[in-house]
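Risk register update: the risk of archive-format incompatibility is retired. Evidence:
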Amino acid sequence: MTALNKLSSAKVRTAPPGKYSDGGGLWLVKRDDGGAQWVLRVTVYGRRREMGIGSLQAVSLKEARETAEKWRAVVREGKDPIKERDRKRRLAERQDHTLASVAHEAFEARKSQLKGDGKAGRWFSPLELHVLPKIGKVPVEEIDQQDIKNALEPIWHEKADTARKAMNRLNITLEHAAAMGLNVDLQAILKAKALLGKTRHKAKNIPYMPWPEVPAFYSSLTEQTPTHLALRLLILTAVRSYCVRFCHLDQIDGNVWTVPEDNMKGQVGVVTDFRVPLSDEALAVIELAKPLAREGYLFPSVRKGVISDATMSRHMERRELLARPHGFRSSFKTWCVETTDMPEVVVETSLAHVVGSKVERSYRRTDLLERRRPLMVRWADHVTGKNASEVIRIA
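Archived output:
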């Protein structure tokens, strides 16, 4: 039997450059540059294998002997210690690369493209609420269509939009995992959709107020409160409620309101700052709101911050109206289509919609502000009842 434990601590510490056997295939290799490492030599399947088990600086003689014995035991089982070590390392990495951990990495990588770092739009919520509690601890390489189906089946028909968003986030997560070099099934999303089938949910448009009825509602907003004034500005400008709620005095310059990119819907870098031409009526509403401003925000809440997203909706609910604030954008669009000849590109730009292909937009270096101005003035005239009997044709 080959002798073991040939080396002493003193020998290990003082030996000059060279190779020194401790027995049982354990060697200490000292280099001319002063470095040293432990190497285990074993024979597996008639082939000699050498595996490093650490540097002398990190692994003591005692630790090297214990590690060598562990791997010699693996050899006695007829296994290749190097392959076994690699297998265990891959297994440990798979446990580290759970769906939850990779999903968070994917979110962090995508944050800079999202409005408000993804918090305002709650980008991560569909995963956090409906997917990760069920399969978040599963290694991402093991995720298959059945896992995804089981996670989303409870909301597939009842909360179809949320399920759709969750699918989208899952797809981004799997693509991120593939980019990390992990062996994931990029077809799992499509397969899961096939298993789940077509959703029974039918998308419903946000209820809107027919444009002929808008003047009567507008005239009822007589109170000088953040809610009434915010609704008035929302109607007059046809912007989204988020833009109105976070309207700041610094954003107003003369008769132009510049909504910052962070307050616009869409990905950062795709949507930019948006200029809104202000009619005289809109400017008058802003003047009425100025005395109410807090920290520069025109529509503050009772306690802190700005009015909530539900504040204006609740006002309309109390009035027993089916329409909701966002629906006034549809009121404006329908009014444009039915009563004006304004080109679609002007109307869509007024709604801050992305118009045309990427190539077209790269050549169209204008937001059509001056063409939109008379349109918004005419809309304000309609809203305030000044042209109630007029059918408008705008060249």
